[in-house]
Amino acid sequence: MSRITLILTSCLLLVAAGCTAGGDDASPVAEVVSLTLNSKCPIMGGDVEPEGGTFEYAGATIGFCCDGCSEDFAALDDAGKVAALAEAGAELPK
Length: 94
Fold this sequence. Notes:
This protein is mainly alpha-helical.
């Protein structure tokens, strides 16, 4: 009986710990960065974070490091947006 109890307890602990068959280890940051053109914020230069939000521009999704940067980016003219993206190491698709 103790062997069955041990097996059941182990299974319950794995389920409680969030163990999944798929083994999806993607962090929210990795997910956001994979969806954006850039990994560095074109306004502040920090790493793109989920809290920073995104902005659609010229067919690309631009990511930001913090709340407010998307509004600053939106306020730039087209040349300013392109320059800010280049400074962040990103280039718009042609």
